[in-house]
Automatic annotation (TrEMBL):
Gene3D superfamilies (UniProt xref): 3.10.20.30
Domain of life of the source: Bacteria
InterPro entries linked: Beta-grasp_dom_sf (IPR012675), Mopterin_synth/thiamin_S_b (IPR016155), ThiS/MoaD-like (IPR003749)
Protein name, per record: MoaD/ThiS family protein
Organism this protein belongs to: Streptomyces spinosisporus
SUPFAM superfamilies named among the record's database cross-references: MoaD/ThiS (SSF54285)
């Protein structure tokens, strides 16, 4: 199973209490399920509003279960940002 780093930004970082952490997951859906188990509560609510980058590529509207993760890859968790 691939080992990936999940990086949290802004409100996601505040809710997780860490900037990044490792997970074992085959897909983005599996990684996010693991995040929810490790951080029930506020982070679960924040994730509903987030967009995601996998190895620098936007996930967009693709189903999270279809987004495969590579060993050593990175998932960026990006809440909506204010300003511009």
């Amino acid at each position: 199973m691939p080992k990936v780093t999940v990086r949290y930004w802004a409100a996601a970082k505040a809710a997780a209490g860490v900037a990044e952490e490792p997970f074992d997951a085959d897909s983005l859906a599996e990684a996010l399920d693991a995040v929810r188990v490790r951080h029930p509560g506020e982070l679960t609510r924040v994730l509903q509003r987030c967009s995601f980058l996998v190895d620098g590529d936007p996930v967009g509207t693709r189903g999270h279960e279809t987004v495969r993760l590579a060993d050593g890859g990175t998932v960026e968790v990006l809440p909506p940002f204010a300003g511009g």
